[in-house]
Design brief:
Layout (H helix, E strand, L loop, with lengths): L13 E2 L2 E2 L2 E6 L3 H12 L4 E7 L2 H11 L3 E4 L8 H11 L5 E5 L3 H11 L3 E4 L4 H12 L7 H11 L17 H11 L4 H8 L3 H15 L4 H50 L1
Parallel strand pairs: 3-4, 3-5, 5-6, 6-7
Antiparallel strand pairs: 1-2
Helix pairs in contact: 2-3, 7-9, 7-10, 8-9
């Protein structure tokens, strides 16, 4: 059980007129990730790592022990997992900013993390600068997600997209159900999913039944088709997002080249 403490606003400490670095606790079940993230944080002048944890239970202890200003949490943790940890921390430390750092696609898991109380979501595939930007954003009280997810969530609010909205949307699935749904779409069998998540095939079948019920599907084939179609749409969305990013980069390079050419012409005129 977590002990309820008087919440504090997460903001830089001040001593003698000088701002102290924000203290960051890193929670991840992979030692290399923990060490790498801590090294990145410790290389900054405005933040420092104050500890680490490999599980949800250890994280609860470390939060009470180190009193961090920000917590970085992975979703895939031993025990109840990162989402449940976020809920617990928010219940006892409602003003503690939490930033999720995960290998899982934000389009699948970010909404659940934000509903649980996280203030931002960064994928591990992104550059280190994104993690640092996310830490600084959530410490200031801002939300931090990608532009792609922001657009999707705005579409949900204005009624333009049902994919994450309503009882039959992805938001109705638990984290493990989302993982199973994603695995089904990727062609994994019940046995393979059970081995991956350390549960019996019977448990995976229970998850499949829950997903079918929530999506209004009646057969296993319908579930497979729905999962495959969803994975294909996600892949298409990533391709478009990547193309847009490359076009923006090419446009910036072109603009820079044009400016350089213009400067050279001006120098020749002089």
């Amino acid at each position: 059980m977590l002990k309820r403490k008087e919440p504090k606003a997460a903001q830089p400490h001040c001593a003698g007129g000088m701002l102290k670095p924000a203290r960051v606790l890193v929670v991840d079940d992979h030692p290399l990730i923990r060490k790498g993230v801590r090294a990145l944080i410790d290389g900054q002048s405005d933040m420092t790592s104050c500890g680490e944890a490999a599980s949800a239970n250890e994280a609860r202890v470390q939060v009470d022990k180190t009193r961090p200003d920000i917590v970085v949490v992975d979703i895939s943790l031993p025990g109840n997992g990162g989402i449940e940890l976020i809920r617990d921390l928010q219940a006892c430390h409602p003003k503690l900013p939490i930033l999720v750092l995960s290998m899982h696609d934000e389009m699948l898991y970010a909404e659940q993390a934000m509903r649980a109380g996280a203030k931002g979501y960064v994928m591990k595939q992104e550059p280190p600068e994104r993690l640092l930007a996310g830490l600084r954003a959530v410490q200031k009280g801002d939300l931090f997600v990608s532009q792609r997810l922001t657009s999707t969530m705005l579409n949900v609010f204005v009624g333009g997209s049902p994919r994450m909205n309503g009882r039959n949307g992805l938001s109705s699935l638990s984290v493990r159900e989302l993982q199973v749904f994603e695995g089904i779409g990727g062609g994994m069998s019940t046995q393979q999913l059970g081995q991956k998540y350390g549960v019996s095939p019977k448990t995976i079948e229970t998850y499949r039944a829950h997903i079918k019920h929530k999506f209004g599907l009646t057969t296993g084939n319908e579930l497979v088709h729905a999962a495959v179609r969803w994975m294909e749409s996600e892949a298409a969305g990533k391709t478009v997002a990547g193309q847009e990013g490359r076009r923006d980069q090419q446009s910036a390079i072109s603009n820079q080249q044009s400016m350089t050419s213009h400067q050279k012409r001006c120098q020749k005129t002089r």
